Amino acid sequence: xxxxxxxxxxxxxxxxxxxxxxxxxxxxxxxxxxxxxxxxxxxxxxxxxxxxxxxxxxxxxxxxxxxxxxxxxxxxxxxxxxxxxxxxxxxxxxxxxxxxxxxxxxxxxxxxxxxxxxxxxxxxxxxxxxxxxxxxxxxxxxxxxxxxxxxxxxxxxxxxxxxxxxxxxxxxxxxxxxxxxxxxxxxxxxxxxxxxxxxxxxxxxxxxxxxxxxxxxxxxxxxxxxxxxxxxxxxxxxxxxxxxxxxxxxxxxxxxxxxxxxxxxxxxxxxxxxxxxxxxxxxxxxxxxxxxxxxxxxxxxxxxxxxxxxxxxxxxxxxxxxxxxxxxxxxxxxxxxxxxxxxxxxxxxxxxxxxxxxxxxxxxxxxxxxxxxxxxxxxxxxxxxxxxxxxxxxxxxxxxxxxxxxxxxxxxxxxxxxxx
Length: 420
Ligand code: AMP
Ligand code: GLY
Description:
- Strand 20 and strand 21 (about 365-370) form a beta hairpin.
- Helices cover about 30% and strands about 30% of the residues.
- The chain has four domains: about 1-95, Rossmann fold (3-Layer(aba) Sandwich); about 125-180, ATP-grasp fold, A domain (Dna Ligase, domain 1, 2-Layer Sandwich), CATH 3.30.1490.20; about 190-315, ATP-grasp fold, B domain (D-amino Acid Aminotransferase, Chain A, domain 1, 2-Layer Sandwich); about 325-420, Alpha-Beta Complex (Glycinamide Ribonucleotide Synthetase, Chain A, domain 4), CATH 3.90.600.
- The protein is an alpha+beta fold and about 425 residues long.
- It has helices spanning about 10-20, 35-40, 50-60, 70-75, 80-85, 95-100, 105-115, 125-135, 160-170, 240-260, 295, 305-315, 385-395, 410-420, and strands at about 1-5, 25-30, 45, 65-70, 90, 120-125, 140-145, 155, 185, 190-200, 205, 210-215, 215-220, 220-225, 230-235, 265-275, 280-285, 325-335, 355-360, 360-365, 365-370, 375-380, 405.
- The strands form six sheets. Strands 12, 15, 18, 19, 22 and 23 form a six-stranded antiparallel β-sheet that branches.
- Adenosine monophosphate binds near residues 188 and 284.
- Adenosine monophosphate (AMP) binds near residues 119, 142, 154 and 272.
């Protein structure tokens, strides 16, 4: 098989690398990819992820067996519809099904209809009524821009003033443009967070092992929200029974609900969940693999990922086997991220004791340099989360790195819970 992966981040690096490991795969292309991926033998295609005509042309010329889509933007813009219309095989939800991520309102309506547990909410498009509602509800309260906002459109307000400022920014100053014209105001949930991803083919659901992301920039969940600063898998704080309950009360009913809604979902369905005192509840659905969750989930997949996707695309039942190992991944970010950040720093090079997944990198004078907020992710597997965390830390500590930062507590919660 010849496979094309769409996207350019660490998530796509992990996906493409896993495909390349399959004995059935001769080459893996990534469009546009990043020069760090090339070190692993992934071939870069200089076409951006939104240039559908160019991508279709490449896939036809190169006789790509099928295409796999990493990020949400092309999915929401209809890349799957465009490829299928051109007679090409592609794995991911079409434009209508990707709305599960593209519109919080769409997702909430389906959850209510199918009694899928989620935070109580109301949506607003005018500032006055939104502010009145927030005052009635009190804090803490959660305010979300309705559309895509790269993980930054969510404000967890502990104070009324913070909530008011968020509403002003989204509804009056239009900080998130069209994404913020509607806001969803949500009940604040407390509990352990986890990400439950599944391969979905319409009504069929094949869950993956779970992971936990770390959204805040700094240690101990301080600082601004980011795209994700690190993750680990498994999440021992969540029991097998709780995962099963989440599959049965959330993922399966959602897959069935999408079919019933005439927006059947085929692709990777990502449920962002909180384990509350009354069971798992949905924070958000995404229509794709998570970043950085993928970089710690896929190293635990013993089965051939390319065969799994090929099976799903050809109506065969895939085999999924997971390793008992633990995986920890820590993002190396450019100083300043998620605000204005430095670029152009040389990249640290890690040895084979860890896995390096490249994201925001570019090539300059035949050298890799930092060229994005999240530059790379260092991951390791071991028999415990503690041991995996130690491997990653040792790798990071041996490097002299100016103008970078990373979190030192990825996996710490799991280690603590194991000690109790
Ligand atoms: P999201 O981009 O929707 O994943 O939200 C970013 C982060 O905000 C999540 O990872 C949670 O930590 C937090 N969050 C979102 N919704 C809620 C909620 N209803 N209750 C508590 N925390 C939330
Ligand atoms: N790690 C969160 C996401 O991919 O949306």
